[in-house]
Each structure stands twice: as C-alpha cells, then as structure tokens.
Amino acid sequence: MKILITGATGYIGKRLIPILLNEGHHLICTVRDIARIEHLYAKDEKIEFVEIDFLKANSLRLIPSEIDIAFYLIHSMSNSAKEFHILEERCAFNFKRALEKTSVKQVIYLSGITNDTKLSKHLLSRKNVEKTLQSKQYALTTFKAGIIVGSGSSSFEIIRDLVEKLPFMIAPRWLNTKTQPIGVRDVLSFLSKAIGKKELYHKSFDIFGPQVLTYKEMLLQFAKFRGLKRTIVTVPIMTPKLSSYWLYFVTSTSYKLASSLVNSMGIEIIGEKSSINSLLEIYPMNYKKAIELAFIKIEQNSIISSWKDSYISSGKLQNYIHKYINVPSYGCFKDFKQRDVIDTEKTINKIWSIGGNNGWYYGTFLWKIRGYIDQFYGGTGLRRGRRSPTELRNGDALDFWRVIYADKNQKKLLLYAEMKLPGEAWLEFKIEKNVLYQTATFRPKGVAGRLYWYLVTPLHWFVFNGMINRIIKTK
Asked: Which regions of 306-422 does DSSP assign to beta strands (E)?
C-alpha cells in the first residue's frame, strides 16, 4: 500500500517507518525540514520525503493524490504554551482539507486517553483534533494511548531522571494520580495492524497496558527494577508552577514542557475496555516488561528515537535546522584552531562521540558549570545528553547543542547552541587533507553580546585548545 506518514521525524514516526517498510509498503513521509532526512533511507526506493509545514496550507499541495492510508502523528506540547491548541487544530484542519482531495481510504490518528470529565488544555486539544479530522471522504481510526513507556519516550526519561537522581523525593500530590502505561512496542503494533481494517473504520479505541498504577507506583517499580531504594513523600502544598519547576530542575525536560506535563498529570488516564485487543490480537505487556525492553535498547545503544530530539526540547531553535547551516561571518567573533590528524578514522569517531556521558574531552567541570548557569536562567543545561553514545543525526539534541549537520563521509559536524546566550553560537569540526579545523562562531546581540564574548574569551582559549588537543590524540 501507499502510506502517508506525518510526524515522520517524531518519536513514534521514526519507529513506525522501519516496521512499515519491512511489511513492503511504499511510504511518503512529510517533514518540516528536509535537512532532517535520515541518510539510511537514501537508497530505499520504497520511501520518499516531502517538505511540508501543516500550518501553511499551500505547502500541502506536495502531498500525492494517490494514497491508500495516512497516519496523523502530529502532536506538540508546543513552544508557545498559550496557543498550541489553536496551532494543533489548524494543522489538523489543513491536513483534512488536503487529504479529502486524495484517494486515501483510512486515516489513523494517535491521540491520548481523554475519558476524565476534567481535561487539561493539552488533552482537550487532542480531543478537538480528533473531531477536526473526522470526514465523510475517508474513514478515521483513532487510537487513544495511555502513558507511553519506551527507550527515549518523555515519560520514561523523566521517571528515569527522578529515580536515578533522587534517593528521597518530596513530591507533588499528583503523583497519586492513576494511569495505565503502555509499552511503545504495543503502540506500534496497534498502529501497524490497523492498516486497512474495515472493522476499525470511523471508530475510536483506547489502548493501554494491563495495570492501573499511580505515578508514584511507577516510580517505585522503576526503582525496584534498577535495584534502587527510594522514598517518596507527597505533599499537597506544591502549586502547578512549583511542580513545573521541580520537574524542570530535576529532569531533562524544558520548563514549558514540564508545565504542560504537570497540567496533564493531575488527570486520570484510565482507558475504556473495548474489543480492540481481540480484533488485532494484541495483548499489551505490563509496566515492568516495558521497562525491561527499554533498557535492552539502551544497553545495545540502539535507541531509534528520543523525545529530546524534538524541537519542543529546544530553548531556541524553531522548526528548521537548515536556516542555521550557513554559519555567518559578518559581525561575528570566532575562535579558530587547527591540528594535524594522525588517525582520521579515530579522530572522526571521537568527534562523533562528543558530549553526553563521554564529556567534552577537556575542562569538563567548566562545561558543567556553564550547564548549571544555563539551567538557572531557564535553558536546557547539559541534562538532555545524547540519544546514542557514538551516533549523531541531523536534528539530534546534544547536551545544550543541536546537531545541524552530521556527515561522516564529508568529515564534518556542525552544532548550534541552544543555551541561553546574548546572541547565537555555532561549533564546527571539519577534517580536510588530514587537518582538523575547529571553529567556534559567536554572533553577538547588542552590547551585552560583545561583553559576554570578551568575558569568556580566556575560558574559551583554555577549553577549546584543550579539547582539540584531546580529540586528535591517538592514545
């Protein structure tokens, strides 16, 4: 079948693509930024990418008219918390209007469970999107998922941060809210097995795991699995704002995303039973099994996608990385260094392993201090780490940087700074004719930007000089 996938670079989209390709389908994947296309699909004739922004109706003309199935996987906690529901509804409306002009027979939408009488703004938006997508021209199948647990998922990573960092937690009372977590593998099974199933047309199904757990119970079960003893005390005095700051400072989430999560975590996410499990012959795993499988992926360094790579984890970057791929020269300060390379392959591998648990090779304590300062002022800090210890892709989060361009064949890595700065910054590594060129570029904003550069220049010399020397070392 010919299948359209929206949200192709998102957490679920990245994981669904290889499943559908393996089943022999032809895929058309929509992306907002063509620069984020994965190179591993470049030679696959069964997949094509089109650059589409669903907020811009004119760009949807690129969607082919001959389509059998479409997946709507566009979700956003949004960089603009006040209006994300309006943007989501506009995206859904533009998608519907464009798909009604095609031959599509079924649209499959992944939403969240919305059975509570009092819904958060985020969950209410999901519900409104479902209504918007309904059409007489095609059949809509909606899956409403519980909390998704899998390597790289936001819920999994937040729980992991809390459990592994805090032996004793004084936590908000919403930790007593009940939910039904579901493993990401089961979510993907529901999505892929629903293709072309006429008995699912024009219907909505809740999908969820077999256990009803509170967030507190999820934390304690996670701790038990990891062999950690944890004590959690819930208090009623934490306001939503304090709760958001609690998540922000302890976990790797941004403050805006933490705020959206807190507003949803007070809502019970309990699914309504239906015949969907027997119809598709899927019987979801329990929470412990989902954690176990997630850590297998982590230990194998084979995490396909992470919520941190989404632009919503960014403090600065907005939607298109190609806008930042041409590093400016006019009105900029630069720290430029070059060194002869003895072993090109080893040097490239060290560059591709930079950051995260591997560190930045030199002056690690200074990088950590810069991360704490950034976090104090509302930035991402170093908490996001990296998706894989040895692999980088365009669009990946890398501590408080974003990967703008990563090509081992071209021997070039370009990073864009997402820390709080009075300006913009790039860091480039490039090898040409056995010479490594390392360039830090800063485009200041006003007097504050220039003062900032002059203040940190001595530290830059110390850190960047040490870093390039460590990178080229062969031992």
From this structure: 333-340, 397-398, 401-407, 412-417
Same domain, residue pair 319 and 257 = no
Residues 334 and 246 in one domain: no
Phi-psi region of 251 (alpha: psi -120 to 50; beta: other; left: phi over 0): beta
- Strands across the sheet containing 401-407: 333-340, 435-444, 423-432, 412-417, 401-407, 397-398
Contact 16, 186 (CB under 8 A): no
* Structural domain harbouring 81: 2-308
356 and 295 within one domain: no
Quick check: 43 and 80 in contact, CB under 8 A? no
Residue 110: CB atoms within 10 Å = 26
Per-residue pLDDT of the chain (475 residues; tens, 9 = 90+): 999 999 888 889 888 998 999 899 999 999 887 766 656 566 678 899 888 888 888 888 889 999 999 999 987 644 444 677 788 888 999 999 999 999 999 999 999 888 877 777 777 888 889 999 999 999 999 999 988 998 877 788 788 878 888 888 887 787 888 899 999 999 999 999 999 999 999 999 999 999 999 989 999 999 999 888 989 888 877 666 676 666 667 666 666 666 666 666 777 888 999 999 999 999 999 999 999 988 887 765 555 555 444 544 454 544 455 556 678 777 788 999 999 999 999 999 999 999 888 889 988 888 888 888 887 777 777 777 788 888 888 888 888 888 888 888 889 999 998 888 888 899 999 999 899 999 999 988 878 888 999 898 888 888 999 999 999 987 6
Rounded Cα gap, residues 370 and 298, in angstroms: 27
Q: Residue 324: how many CA atoms within 13 Å on its side-chain side?
A: 29
- Between the CA atoms of 371, 374, 380 and 385, what dihedral angle is there, to the nearest 10 degrees? -10
Same domain, 46 and 193: yes
Domain limit, last residue, from 308, 328, 349: 308
If asked whether residues 258 and 358 sit together in one domain, one would say no
With tokens 């209410």, the residue in question is 124
Is the entire prediction scored with pTM above 0.85?
A: no
Alpha helices in 287-343 (DSSP H): 287-299
Q: What domain count does the chain have?
A: 2
Rg (CA), the chain: 23
Residue 229: CATH number of its domain: 3.40.50.720
